[in-house]
Design a protein that fits this description.
The chain has 172 residues and is an all-alpha fold. It is built from 5 helices and no strands.
Length: 172
């Protein structure tokens, strides 16, 4: 229980740090463990070449085993973080692709409607107003449609770019 409580701040801090930073920290820790293990192996070779006490060799082997176990734990943690990152990226990618598909369908339907009405439709709508108030109201409607269309196009472009970025990130 005491060990679990002592580890709690580290676990909470690890959750607050982005996974890319955690992975980088784990890689640095893994490299430090590998260097420590290499030093221990060099020391073991030195011991084998000289007359020595077997307890020193036993301590060295235990230290190597401990370093190896820590390296395996670091790799497991790194793998878990990478798997979480891939799952999150896959979920985000699927959501973005679904949204892009829906918005593209809406955009295609809107483009088809604009094409069917022809290039002079907006002008016809404005000129067919029976009063100045009607003209202003029609202008407002056409302006709102134009803004909505522009927003839709921007949204489709943003989603397309986001999906490309997410695919690149997943490959990396």
């Amino acid at each position: 229980l005491t060990v679990a409580l002592a580890m709690l701040p580290g676990v909470l801090a690890a959750q607050a740090v982005p996974s890319s930073q955690r992975i980088a920290a784990q890689r640095a820790e893994l490299e430090r463990i590998r260097r420590e293990r290499a030093d221990l192996q060099r020391r073991m070779q030195e011991l084998q070449g000289t007359v020595h006490d077997l307890s020193e060799e036993k301590r060295n082997i235990a230290a190597q085993a401990d370093a190896t176990a820590r390296a395996v734990r670091a790799l497991d943690a790194q793998l878990a973080d990478i798997e979480d990152e891939v799952v999150n990226a896959t979920t985000n990618l699927a959501t973005a692709e679904d949204e892009l598909t829906t918005k593209r369908a809406v955009l295609q339907r809107r483009l088809r409607d604009v094409y069917k009405r022809g290039p002079l439709y907006n002008l016809e709508v404005l000129l067919s107003a029976e009063s100045f108030g009607g003209l202003v109201a029609r202008y407002k409607v056409l302006h709102a449609l134009t803004l909505r269309d522009r927003t839709l196009v921007t949204s489709v472009e943003r989603l397309r770019d986001q999906i490309a970025l997410q695919r690149t990130q997943m490959v990396r």
